[in-house]
Specification:
408 residues, Beta-Lactamase, Rossmann fold, seven-stranded mixed sheet, 13 helices, 13 strands
């Protein structure tokens, strides 16, 4: 992390922290409130509280990147985590097991989830901050690439089939899936029964019958899908396909006349198709019901303040950040993120035939390129040329595939 970035964000927090009365009985509650409000103000998605041997370190994840914000006295570690447990309704006396819970909205605006985990030096806690209910997104708000958005809207009008949203962790898959459900609920001229099966439910959606699985009670994703079918749904959202059994149940649901929207861990649209085959799904079933594969990434957007050169040195990506006091980016050089997408739909004969023949990922990529498929790397190159982000950011997200680092 750049020293300038750390100083800017940490300095802003420190100015607020020194105003607290450390001797007050309300010091810890006030500190927790300060952490939550300041983290949200700086657009953090997660707060990490990590106990070390002699301190408690706090990091904020902003636009997908961790920033060190503060180092508290070790004596605060247990008190801070205990306060979070109280707010989330967790067991304060159990420090030897992981726990998860939510902070009631009466204690903090917006959706907040707490997860604790025992480590060598105490208990580690992560606070997940979700977007406010007033900021719920429709598909138009996601700012997808135009062709992907158009294709996604068209496929959402179908009455059956599978729409697969893929990408690695932190790429915004669930946000896109929720946007699809909101679109279905708000845009349909006739009512549709929309139901979801999630682990966990990350946000409450009006007009959607949401259910959270409980594997310990025998209510898992695959068994849940089969039971959900008897609820007469039109649209089913499955939080994530994680195994072959869930994949089979989801595709069978689509085969029997339901539109299924789900997420899947895969690095590209082509890889997603390959992984479905590796899970043992019948190629004919994939060809019959898979309507659309969308793969996406979230990239940090260059701040208008010009805190970053267009092409920072790869030798030291973090130290390329210039000193900045910009209140919008907090000295990071980036302000917010934007979505980069690619998609494959199997209506084209060559692509459908490739699925049936179970060709390898490299061959399928070559066939899809001939069919006009534009991959993430090509879109990334365009984003750099437009000045939306930097080559270093593309390299951070796409790694070796980020050939946009050399846009010429």
């Amino acid at each position: 992390m750049s020293q300038q970035t750390e100083n800017s964000l940490a300095g802003n927090f420190d100015q607020q922290f020194i105003g607290l009365e450390t001797a007050s009985a309300e010091f810890v509650p006030a500190l927790v409130s300060l952490i939550l409000s300041e983290a949200r103000r700086h657009r953090a998605s997660d707060v990490h509280l990590t106990p070390e041997q002699d301190s408690l370190l706090m990091y904020w994840r902003i636009d997908g990147v961790l920033h060190r914000i503060a180092a508290f006295n070790k004596s605060l570690s247990e008190r801070l985590v205990s306060r979070l447990k109280v707010l989330a309704g967790l067991l304060t006396y159990r420090t030897d097991i992981p726990q998860e819970g939510r902070i009631s909205r009466e204690h903090h605006a917006g959706e907040v989830r707490i997860a604790t985990f025992p480590v060598l030096s105490g208990e580690r806690a992560v606070i997940r901050l979700f977007a406010d209910y007033g900021q719920l997104q429709q598909i138009a708000d996601l700012n997808m690439n135009d062709d992907t958005e158009q294709e996604l809207r068209q496929q959402l009008q179908a009455t059956s089939g599978v729409i697969l949203i893929c990408g690695p962790s932190g790429s915004g898959k669930t946000t896109t899936a929720y946007a699809c459900l909101r679109e279905l609920v708000s845009s349909c001229s006739l009512p549709r029964c929309v139901m979801s099966l999630e682990d966990p439910v990350e946000m409450v959606l009006a007009g959607v019958a949401q259910s959270q699985v409980k594997p310990a009670a025998g209510f898992g994703l695959a068994t849940g899908i089969r039971s959900l079918m008897r609820q007469d749904p039109d649209v089913i959202m499955i939080g994530e396909i994680r195994d072959a059994e869930t994949a089979e149940a989801a595709f069978q649901a689509a085969l029997t006349g339901h539109l299924v929207v789900t997420t899947f861990h895969a690095g590209s649209a082509v890889e997603a198709l390959s992984r479905l085959g590796e899970m043992g799904l019948d190629a004919t079933l994939i060809r019959s019901v898979l309507r659309l594969v969308v793969c996406q990434r979230l990239l940090r957007r260059s701040c208008p303040c010009g805190g970053l050169p267009l092409e920072p040195s790869l030798g030291d990506l973090e130290e390329s950040i210039r000193e900045s006091s910009c209140p919008q980016c907090g000295g990071t050089g980036f302000s917010g993120r934007f979505l980069l997408t690619e998609h494959i739909e199997l209506q084209q004969r060559d692509l459908a035939e490739a699925v049936l023949q179970r060709v390898d990922a490299i061959t399928f990529a070559e066939i899809s390129q001939r069919a006009g498929f534009t991959d993430l790397t090509s879109r990334a190159r365009s984003a750099v040329l437009k000045g939306l982000t930097t080559g270093a950011e593309i390299f951070r997200i796409l790694g070796r595939d980020g050939s946009a680092l050399n846009p010429d």
